[in-house]
Amino acid sequence: MGGWLTEPWVTVIGTGVTGGFTTFSTASLEAVRLLSDRRWTAAVVDSLGTLVGAVAFASLGILLARG
Predict the structure, then answer these.
(1) Of 65, 50, 58, 52, which is closest to residue 42 (Cα–Cα)?
(2) 3-state class of 5 per DSSP?
(3) Pairwise CA distance, residues 22 & 55, whole Å
(4) Which of 18, 42, 56, 61 has the most CB atoms in a 10 Å sphere around its CB?
(5) DSSP-assigned letters across all residues of 18-66
(6) For the chain, which residues make up each domain, given as ranges?
(7) What SS3 class is residue 17?
(8) Per-residue pLDDT reduced to its tens digit, 13-62
(9) Within 10 A of 13 (CB to CB), how many other CB atoms are there?
(10) Is-contact 34 22, C-beta < 8 A?
(11) Residues 36, 39: Cα–Cα separation, whole Å
């Protein structure tokens, strides 16, 4: 490897970044589809719900990890 991260950490970080990217791409695509269908309220509710849910679960994960 030759870097400052060990192989398990590279795997964990790589998986997290890839997973985050695909989740963001899917959420963005869904918002664009709703907007293109002129479903304004659904687009706003879906986008805000995704944002609030993501922050809430990330916070929960941090709290659980701290013990």
Answers:
(1) 50
(2) coil
(3) 17
(4) 42
(5) HHHHHHHHHHHHHHHHHHHTT-HHHHHHHHHHHHHHHHHHHHHHHHHHH
(6) 8-66
(7) helix
(8) 889 889 888 888 999 999 999 999 999 999 999 999 999 999 999 999 99
(9) 11
(10) no
(11) 8
